[in-house]
Every structure is written in structure tokens, then in C-alpha cells.
């Protein structure tokens, strides 16, 4: 890692050094050495510590970076130095050598730690937190709509300078200053170089340092900090330049913000992925889409029968009209809708209307259960995916309808599933296939109905006496008495019945 002289000496004490340089933002130093009279090879990436008593010959070719103890030697033509440092007090060269070596090593370890986190796909939050190690002020990342994505570092409780941070943390976004300070947008669109920006009078004209963040040559958001804890210095600025590079690399290589859909807001996609989001940011943006925090919701997911024909996103306006819904998005090869109109949930009349449209478009849907908390959107989305995966011929199905079948299929994919069988269940193998199916269905309904004969008969649309006959047949076949079975035994019997219904003995 290449450093600037300010990054090094601000870590020691700025009061005892006088720094002169031609290019304030130049970062070229990678090591420090004591300059010796016999030194013949001069490295441009090395900071040399030189005793002021040393006299340079007239034809000496000066290195780029020098540190002089107490005073400049008269023989040094400072015009040839791209950077020079003068101590204002007597300091041991050896002591200074060790101190500067430790600072350079600390920066290099800092860089290695961050790069390792990037390679390991650590969270952006974790990477940003490590980045603050070399900063004196807290830092934040915003998206291009000024929504707060994350913060790192400690925000001190300072009444005046802390007002801007208090606003950001309480509102989940940066204040809109584009009308008051139109120069902000022009600065953001004028290259990648970090820049200083003065807040308006609402925040006592606090000074901010803002760095644009890019991903795949498109602007992703901004990295920003204010001088809430300490005044900005050249070293702090250069640290932010380096952090800007780190964060852009992290955004590029981690999957956390590698969103798959340009049509879905990032906060919705984060929820679908099961990621955490700042609550203020989330509900501020959801409210703009008409989402009511206090109301329940459920998820529709629509999918085409095949890849033929028009893209599925072309049907978003039609489905949006049918559902009278704004929160509907194209996600991968599907359409995802977040619906708070519970009259659409398990409504057979509405299902029929939806089915007619889906049949024409060769599409089908999966529907989740109802949820109260939008942060559970990932669970709701996965339920709709499960429903889609279990759909057969019908154009749509809800998660609850396929839950028993799905549980059994999932459960019996385990290597230990063979142990989940009630004793004597293989006796069903001796029954003719057609009648065996009738007995198993009757058994499943009888247990599901709480051993209620009348309810079982009603659910199966058969006479009560037929149910009595079949239950007696099952008791004889399994050598059991239902009234004597425990709840655990009934549960295992129900699972065994489900397994045999989906698995042939042939």
C-alpha cells in the first residue's frame, strides 16, 4: 500500500512536524529507511530519515522523500524534493524509524485485512467497519436516492455538529439539499474524485466529505462523512480516497448488492433475499408505494409455462390492473406482487377471474400465507415458490393447499425416512391397489378430522357407514385400536399414510 506523508505523520503528532510537498495528494511511500552517507541507490517510494548535520555534495541526486531532524541542511536544494519533512524538536532517528515503520505496517495490515474480507465475500457492513479503523470521523453509505444503507464508526453526542447525523439516523436518509445546493448533483456527476461539501443553514453549514461510489461503471451511491469528531485533514482525505477504492471493490465482488433486477427496488430485493435493512429507510420507501405498515400482506408469484412468447415483464401492467396494486415487480423470470388486499386471499370469485387471464397468457401463480411484518417477505416469497413448485394442472395454488404433500415429500427425501413408518403398514401391500388407495385416503382424512366419523364422511362425500367399515378394516389390518393410540402414534400413522399415498409399492 502506498502512502502519503500526511497519512504517516498525522498518526504521530502534527504539532512537531513541518511538511513541504509539491503534490499534496501523491501517495508513493511504501517504506522508511535511515539515510547513510554510503547510500548510492535512491528509491522514490522510500522515506529517508536524515541527520541535519549531514552535508550533501553539490552533484547529489536527491530522493523524493526526506525527513530532516530539527533543521534543513544548507546543502539541500529543496526545489528537487517532491516531499520534505522537518521536525521542530530533537527526536531520535532510531525512535522515529521504528514509529514510522510501525505506522506503515499498520496501514499494510489494514489493507490486507480488508482485501481478505472482500475475497471472502464478507458483508459490506463488516468491511466498512474495518475501514473506519484509519478514520477519525464516522462514515456512512447512501444509495442514489439518498437512502441510508449503513453506517460505521462512533457518532459522538455533539449538539451542533451532531445535528446532521441525528437527522440521518432518525430519518434513514440524507436530507434533500438539491434545491438549496444544486452544486451537489453537479459535483456527484463530475467524476469519481471525493469532494468537500458545505451543509446548508439547517445543519450549521457542517463540512462534509463525499465520495461517489461506482459499480460496473454506473454510479451506485455515495460514501460520506462529516467533521463531527475531528476536523478534516489531508491525511483523512487520503484515507477516504483509499476507502472509496476498497468499498467499490467490495460492491463489485460481493453478492450482497449484486441485484438481479433493474425493475425491483433494492430494498425489496434485499427483503426477498432475507437481508436486514435499516427500518427507517424501509418504511419511508414502502410508504411512498402505498404500503401500510399496520396491515397484513401476502405474496403472489407468477410464472410462465414456458419461455416461448413475450417476456413475463410485459404482463406486469395487466396483473397490476387486476390486483389494483403498485407493489408488483419483475424478479428473475417471475412477477412478484405484495398484496395487502386480503379480499384477494382465498377468494374463489377472484381466483376465477385471475384464472381466466392466466390461462390466456399460459401463466400460473403460487400464493403465500398472510404475514404481518414486511421484514418476513423472504419467508412469504419462499412459500409462494414452494406453491409454484408443487403446482400440477391448476393455474394457481396456495401454500397451505400443498403444505401436507410438500412436507411429506421433503421429509421422506432424508436417508432416515425409512424409520418413519408405523408398524404393519406394509400389510397394505396385500390389498388390491384400487381399494388400498380408498383405505389410505380414508385413514388420512379420519386422522386429520380428529377421529370424527361424520366429518370424515362429509369430507370424502361418502356414507358414514362406509367410513365405519373402512376404519374397522384398517384396525384389523394394522392390529390397532384408534381410541388407544397416543397423539405421537397418530402422527406417525398419518405420516406413514401420506408416504404410501405418494409412493407406489410396485
From TrEMBL:
Domain of life: Bacteria
InterPro entries xrefs: CdaR-like_regulators, PucR_C-HTH_dom, PucR_C-HTH_sf
Pfam short name (any one): HTH_30
UniProt domain PucR C-terminal helix-turn-helix: residue ranges: 439-483
Name of this chain's protein: PucR C-terminal helix-turn-helix domain-containing protein
Gene3D superfamilies hit by this protein: PucR C-terminal helix-turn-helix domain
Amino acid at each position: 500500500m502506498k502512502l502519503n506523508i500526511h497519512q504517516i505523520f498525522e498518526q504521530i503528532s502534527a504539532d512537531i512536524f513541518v511538511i513541504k510537498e509539491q503534490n499534496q495528494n501523491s501517495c508513493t511511500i511504501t517504506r522508511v529507511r535511515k539515510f547513510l552517507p554510503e547510500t548510492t541507490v535512491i528509491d522514490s517510494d522510500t522515506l529517508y530519515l536524515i541527520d541535519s548535520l549531514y552535508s550533501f555534495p553539490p552533484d547529489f541526486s536527491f530522493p523524493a522523500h526526506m525527513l530532516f531532524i530539527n533543521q534543513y541542511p544548507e546543502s539541500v536544494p529543496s526545489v528537487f524534493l517532491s516531499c520534505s519533512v522537518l521536525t521542530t524538536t530533537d527526536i531520535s532517528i532510531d525512535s522515529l524509524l521504528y514509529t514510522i515503520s510501525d505506522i506503515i505496517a499498520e496501514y499494510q495490515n489494514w489493507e490486507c485485512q480488508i482485501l481478505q474480507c472482500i475475497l471472502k465475500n464478507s458483508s459490506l457492513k463488516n468491511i466498512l467497519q474495518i475501514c473506519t479503523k484509519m478514520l477519525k470521523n464516522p462514515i456512512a453509505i447512501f444509495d442514489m436516492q439518498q437512502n441510508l444503507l449503513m453506517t460505521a464508526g462512533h457518532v459522538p453526542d455533539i449538539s451542533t455538529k451532531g445535528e446532521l447525523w441525528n437527522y440521518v439516523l432518525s430519518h434513514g436518509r440524507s436530507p434533500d439539499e438539491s434545491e438549496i445546493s444544486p452544486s451537489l448533483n453537479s459535483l456527484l456527476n463530475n467524476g469519481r474524485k471525493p469532494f468537500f461539501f458545505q451543509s446548508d443553514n439547517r445543519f450549521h453549514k457542517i463540512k462534509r466529505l463525499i465520495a461517489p461510489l461506482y459499480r460496473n461503471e454506473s454510479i451506485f451511491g455515495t460514501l460520506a462523512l462529516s467533521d463531527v469528531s475531528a476536523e478534516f485533514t489531508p491525511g483523512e482525505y487520503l484515507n477516504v480516497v483509499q476507502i472509496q477504492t476498497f468499498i467499490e471493490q467490495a460492491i463489485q465482488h460481493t453478492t450482497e448488492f449484486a441485484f438481479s433486477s433493474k425493475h425491483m427496488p433494492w430494498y425489496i430485493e434485499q427483503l426477498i433475499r432475507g437481508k436486514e435493512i435499516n427500518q427507517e429507510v424501509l418504511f419511508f420507501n414502502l410508504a411512498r408505494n402505498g404500503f401500510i405498515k399496520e396491515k397484513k400482506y401476502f405474496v403472489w408469484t407468477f410464472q410462465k409455462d414456458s419461455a416461448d412468447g413475450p417476456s413475463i415483464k410485459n404482463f406486469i401492467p395487466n396483473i397490476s390492473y387486476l390486483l389494483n396494486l403498485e407493489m408488483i415487480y419483475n424478479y428473475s423470470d417471475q412477477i412478484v406482487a405484495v398484496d395487502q388486499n386480503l379480499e384477494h386471499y382465498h377468494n374463489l370469485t377472484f381466483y376465477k377471474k385471475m384464472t381466466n387471464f392466466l390461462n390466456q397468457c399460459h401463466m400460473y401463480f403460487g400464493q403465500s400465507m398472510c404475514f404481518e411484518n414486511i421484514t418476513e417477505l423472504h419467508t412469504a416469497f419462499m412459500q409462494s415458490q414452494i406453491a409454484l413448485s408443487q403446482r400440477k394442472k391448476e393455474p394457481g395454488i396456495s401454500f397451505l393447499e400443498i403444505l401436507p404433500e410438500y412436507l411429506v415429500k421433503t421429509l421422506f427425501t432424508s436417508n432416515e425416512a425409512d424409520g418413519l413408518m408405523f408398524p404393519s403398514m406394509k400389510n397394505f401391500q396385500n390389498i388390491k391397489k384400487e381399494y388400498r388407495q380408498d383405505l389410505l385416503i380414508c385413514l388420512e382424512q379420519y386422522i386429520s378430522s380428529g377421529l370424527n366419523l361424520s366429518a370424515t364422511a362429509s369430507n370424502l362425500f361418502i356414507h358414514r357407514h362406509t367410513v365405519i367399515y373402512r376404519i374397522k378394516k384398517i384396525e384389523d389390518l394394522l392390529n390397532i385400536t384408534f381410541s388407544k393410540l397416543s397423539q405421537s402414534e397418530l402422527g406417525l400413522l398419518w405420516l406413514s399414510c401420506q408416504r404410501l399415498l405418494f409412493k407406489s409399492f410396485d
